[in-house]
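Entry 12.
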Amino acid sequence: MTVHAHITGWGKFVPPCVVTNDDLAQMVDTSDGWIRTRTGIAERRIAADGETTSYMSLQAARQALEVAGLSPSQLDLIIVATVTPDHAFPATACLVQDGLGATRAAAFDLSAGCTGFIYGLSVAADLVASGAYENALVIGAETLSRIVDWSDRATCVLFGDGAGAIVLQANGANGGVLSTVLGSDGSGCELLCLPAGGSKEPASQRTLDEGLHYLKMEGRQVFRFAARAMPTATRQVLERAGLTLSDLKLVIPHQANQRIIEASTRSLGLPAEVVYSNLERYGNTSAASIPIALCEAVDEGRVEQDDLIVCVGFGAGLTWGAAAIRWSMPLPPELPSPWERVLRQLRYRYASLRSLVRRFVRWLFALGVKE
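Predicted 3D structure (tokens):
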């Protein structure tokens, strides 16, 4: 029997703190009109202290598992796509695994810039379809506010924080993830990068003084690259699935810039209503933008069973990618009963307690070894 990877759960988290264009105008030389005209962004969400990439990932993951009706212990795989992990290592996915109590799950991070979620979705879907795993959790999450120079109006107006997650499950029914396309061009690596903090430019007083721990971007060149890459990837992923643009119900692009989205839409010859955008409310949340947009499109009734969706993005690397998905999940999902909600909360509390106990046991063991 042929196995397909189906999306059965989805969830998102965006920080409560809203920073508007007018707020930014108090910080740098800009204005609401300037930002809206050039980007289409009106506001963005900014993470507070304690709202780390792992924290936001956990909130989105719990929602996705609830929609899927899946216990964390049933997960086989967790992938977190991010360029702003909690730490260089361990992987943020391991922190999510521990926080969920997903004791059977392998976990790793994936870094492909703003295309990260598409890369993670492709990897997980292939592993599920191969029979290696049955249940996978894919998360796109970013705290870009931590690496933005808030005195640089060219970049600080663009980015926001948030997380989105999906659950993929193996099923013999037709549909689910039909095809994916991934690409990269490392010759453009300097167009969008974080110069310092790695092995090439380790942290030093010089890198701090020169602001090399802040995101750097060549906006015009990234714009030109994106306007070519997104239409091309969309056509390729449909061709690989044996479908055409006329079959499309909805395109969910990476939410980077409204002018990029509109240029890609014109290139594909699609009507504006086929392309989903929530950029105005959140700005560019990098790897989180597509899963957040997917969640909102579903919640708004823009997706129905058997609809064909293409998720497409581009990002640092340079990278690009697309996924063609036949939506197979009945909508709306059956909501859990109050008792099931209580049980889930108890399960997460148990996961936290289990983690504390395991840390304590390690501490005791280490103390015994020293003595």
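Annotation: Residues 338-370 form the longest helix (33 residues). The longest strand covers residues 161-171.
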